[in-house]
Amino acid sequence: MRRLLTGCFVTLLLLLNTLVLFGPLMVFALLKLVAPGRFRDYASKAVMWIAETWAEIDKLIFTLCTPTQWDIRGGDNLRGDTSYLVISNHQSWVDIPALIQSLNRRTPFFKFFLKKELIWVPFLGLAWWALDYPFMKRYSKAFLAKHPELAGQDLKITKEACELFKRQPVTVVNYLEGTRFSEAKRQQQASPFKRLLKPKAGGVAFVLAAMGEQLDAILDVTVVYPSQTQQEKIPGFWDLISGAVPKVIIDIRTRELDPALWQGDYENDPAFRQTVQNWVNQLWMEKDARIEALRAEGR
Asked: Whole-structure pTM over 0.85, yes or no?
């Protein structure tokens, strides 16, 4: 009963926080439609400030109403005036609050690359647009085979969508696994990693090609939910808001970006593609070992 009451109360507070700040966010979002040049940038900054304030209030709600200990390690020299690429493992919807806890107002408000079609999702599409989330258009290999004249257009469109980031710092989040981890998915993939799914190098290669020169560093983030057992259930969002997640470890390691990772054609150059894939696989091998070490420490 206590978990049920806690979950309902936290849900109510999170909903109220969202409803109160959604209106002002939309006001400045609509100003972006009519504001010229520099004033559009001011409106964008106002939207970001509102989003960060929303996130800070959410953090306060979790601190006051739930017993979760957020064990944040690393990232001591993070800044809000530069751009980052975040690469993280992905297990649960709790990963998003974990990013908020560890990065909000320590780095620029984070953004995800979204499919262009998602802009038409009611309310959310407008909110994502207001937050300057890049909407990208990807063509399949089959489509490009029929329309070779469109090769490279998806990258061009994405670079244009990221034009604002040349004037404002940004934190771009990329989940290389493409989906949330589960033991069933790991076995289905025959993943060589113990605690991770196979990484998809194409997504990060696309981000680096579009934004490589604007990014100053990679934040290699590892999220771990310590447990006493080997086959524990990964906590979900309800577990978090009802007070059933005792501890979350967020390990942040800052890595320098090698320009060689975006100075090539991932789709058409096999040698360059292999270089990026080797880099991603090495990153994932190290992350898998780090997860095991952090889990052992937690136990």
From this structure: yes
